[in-house]
Amino acid sequence: MSSMESLAQLEVLCEKLYNSRDSAERAHAESTLKCFSENSEYISQCQYILDNATTPYALMLASSSLLKQVSDRSLSLQLRLDIRNVSFCKHIAWHYS
User: Within 13 Å, how many C-alpha atoms sit on residue 68's CB side?
Assistant: First the structure.
């Protein structure tokens, strides 16, 4: 499966997380996606999502997950600064210019 197919599947899952009226579907999406905000190994995937996603739901997942990661004191200060400087600035510059 290509990274674009995976991204498309992630975008569908994010839409279910934020929009589904079915509580079981929403709970499944939440449990599947929580790794992005809880595991620092997903930081690069969050950055990829910010760079390539086309839906606001995927962008919301990636940005909120990175924000949570940056707020986590268990990450090194340098890594938190790198995430902040590269990801957020790049995202804001691209999406709001």
Answer: 16
